[in-house]
Write the structure tokens for this entry.
Amino acid sequence: MLPVVTPAFASGGPAKDLSIPIISADNPGHWGGHEYHGSFKRLPPVQLDGGETYVEGVVKSKKIKGEIPMDAVNRTWHEEDPVRETSYNQYNQSWEQAPATVWSDAPATEIQMAPQNLVMPGLVVPTVPVVKIKSVHNDKEIAFLLTWYDATKSETETMEDKFSDAIAIMFPVKDGAEPSFMMGDDENPVNIVYWKAAWERDLEFGYQDVRDAYPNYNYDMYPEVIPAIGQTIDTPIRRYNEGQRQYLTALKLRNISRVDPERLTAVEELNAVGFGTLTRQAQNNSVGHGVRRFGYWSVVIKRPLNTGDVQDAVLKPGSKTMMAIAAWDGFNKNDGAGGNRGPRKNYSNGGWVPLEIE
Amino acid sequence: MARVRNWQLGREMDYPYEENRPARQVCMLFDLNKCIACQSCTMACKTTWTAGKGQETIFWNNVESKPYGFYPLAWDVKVLALLGEQAQPWEGNVYKGTTIFEDLGMNQRIKGYLPDEMDYAHPNLGEDECLKILDGEGDYIKGPTHKNWGFFFPRICNHCTFPGCLAACPRKAIYKRQEDGIVLIDQSRCRGYRECVAACPYKKSFYNDTVRISEKCISCYPKVEAGLMTQCTTQCIGKIRLFGFRTTDYDKLTKKQVRENNPFDFLVHVRKLALPIYPQFGTEPNNMYIPPVHVNPDFLSQVFGPGVENSIKQYRNAGKDKELLAALLLFGATERICDTFKLEGNETVGYDPQGKEIIRVPLTEPVYIRQVKNLKTGAFLTNNS
């Protein structure tokens, strides 16, 4: 890490190390004023979403009444407070004053993650060592809150060498079946819900294009642009008509996993029957929303218990099924071939985790 | 990993999939002695296929000034470094080093690197470094001191027999067409992992920033299906390229059962004049280059493998070698794909797959002596009188 001299006007204290630490379970670092040791239980900010009761080896979906909001954290408490967001210490005194959320009483499960190295390319060391998961349902909808630590915010895919942070949860499609946790198998398909930070940014700021990644970029003219109707090289691609979209083949072909200027939510639903078979569903029933606080991503993924879609897993109240998790750190370049994406991921160690729906 | 037979290496090698050669294989021949780096091919490709939004840094065809011009930056020296610090060893025509599919690290599927975004920012950076004798004085590149030599290196996707991009794609979104060996990325299946960008040793798979997926040369397949050569071939004003189909069956190649009247088989397998680009990468590239005769032979051997000496010797003698000249004169002579050719007296005749004559080129151009002056009008017809 390179020491960076703090400007004289800032504090006059010793030089600060402003470079970004690479953190793993074996290499605890510090961020936002607290030590990070690869476990939530040893951290002060475990109360990001209120109180905390841990259960081991099982995800329990708690039954609640009323609507399930998409906010991962209670925004009324510390919203719009950029100074405090960056410093845990200023909050140290007030954790217990945090107002309760729907997540407060839901039991948490800490899932240890393993590097995917069963099929190449993979990872050598885990880049997301642990993910905390909570679940609630209200007999109609079920929601999962996934929280994990990531020192770097990676939310652009609009540059050649940049990848996005992401997380996914997986269920067996058939009731009672036990597919291979490695993306399912021929007889037993799996249902995956995938959240990505880049989509969160697309939703917040509009579909991210070349000009967003490179603000000073200039280009003479694109052939698909029609100046006669007032278009310029900065005309967003969502304004393109079908003819213009032919110049962006994937857009014309509606490869909305990658290029979706009309995106409505930051998750997509997929199915798989083994390695290399991941396929987007035609009908998306899930919604997702993620926020970042104190270096943590907190992502809520919500879907109807019974979506009515035969490609989705049916989750019934009072039943037991199972789920698995995968997580990606888009920044991590652990072997020179780019950040985490695709099979370069972390998965819930041991594969399936039992899911008990109250 | 399966074992596959790679004729360019003279041995078997590892590859993630079984050997599956297409019925016929698109192939492009380049005469590097004639390239002047006018970039007509680059612009022909760019305006035809990659002028849209997000394709600003995508050059399916580019021309580099070797030895120090690259696109993306330092692509070939970086891949060579991945194969080992020492020069790749050849014993005769057998490659003794490792390919990008062999001697892998613990989490690797293929040896490769993902270029930095800035590697795409300066096409052909370093092109001027070969214009004078490199002596370390004020040179941008600090390297070995050597006399000045250079050549222009046009490159497109090699539509390899064992593509690195295809092998690397975790989603099997890349496929090689059985009917003509063209390698394509399924634009509706790609999820933009960029494993192909990292894996392709020639760095001919590109990431589109706007649609966030990878795109690569499609070998102008709508033209090829109509029996025409690609845009970069037909727009080449130096007539350095020839595009068509080559025999790809391994047994036929090794038993010399190639078609001698096919210009590609003739130049590649019979005369061995056209050589593969970086055969040591192990992908069995299908673009073949006639090496430039004036360039440092050590450098040429590194790029084109063994056989450079034989190729240069023949090329220098081409003026007296009518059969060779007949094949070389087909370059840039027609837009139609030439299946066979024949030397007829002082003319070379090209035929399409149906055996119909499509082109007739004289080996020696007839000489016409033009009048100095138009006798009727008195206007001078030459500019040196």
